[in-house]
Write a sequence for this structure.
């Protein structure tokens, strides 16, 4: 399961996931605690390595992995929750007609909410408020960065020109 960073915050706020994570960690750490309670000599580096493995395995199994793609800032947390639910339902959508209907509903709802004026309006409103606040103390760098967020970064793309034989044309 791949997650985006905003999905991870939604997951970590879910109390059921927190309970599941704590239960899995306690099961994996119980063997380490039993090993430490024994009379045998134990190397500290082995204990630390086993603890790190226990936390990493549990977090990978319960939480999944995080993608490093930037989150779309104009989508609300509710829309991200629906996207996460749709992502989890996608592998099972062909098993049952109710799964297919629910998956289709989630697709339509995400599209409706992402195109909805509310999420985009609130995002633009926040940026405009930041521009106004930065403009009062003459923080021009913040103003330009905020305006650039709204208008987008327009950088000319360098493209090569090729002839019919796909040979790059250069100026001599």
């Amino acid at each position: 399961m791949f997650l985006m960073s905003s999905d991870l915050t939604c997951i970590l706020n879910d109390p059921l996931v927190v309970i599941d994570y704590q239960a899995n960690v306690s099961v994996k750490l119980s063997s380490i605690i039993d090993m430490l309670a024994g009379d045998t000599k134990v190397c500290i580096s082995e204990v630390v390595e086993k603890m790190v493995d226990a936390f990493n395995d549990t977090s990978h199994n319960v939480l999944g992995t995080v993608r490093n793609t930037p989150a779309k800032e104009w989508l609300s947390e509710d829309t991200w929750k629906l996207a996460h639910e749709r992502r989890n339902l996608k592998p099972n959508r062909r098993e049952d007609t109710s799964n297919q209907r629910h998956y289709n509903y989630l697709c339509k709802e995400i599209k409706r909410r992402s195109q909805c004026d509310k999420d985009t309006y609130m995002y633009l409103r926040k940026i405009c408020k930041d521009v106004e606040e930065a403009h009062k103390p003459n923080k021009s760098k913040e103003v330009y960065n905020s305006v650039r967020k709204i208008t987008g970064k327009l950088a000319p793309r360098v493209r090569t020109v090729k002839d019919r034989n796909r040979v790059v044309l250069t100026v001599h």
Observations:
- The chain has a mean pLDDT of 81.
- The chain is about 65% helix and 0% strand.
- The longest strand covers residues 2-3.
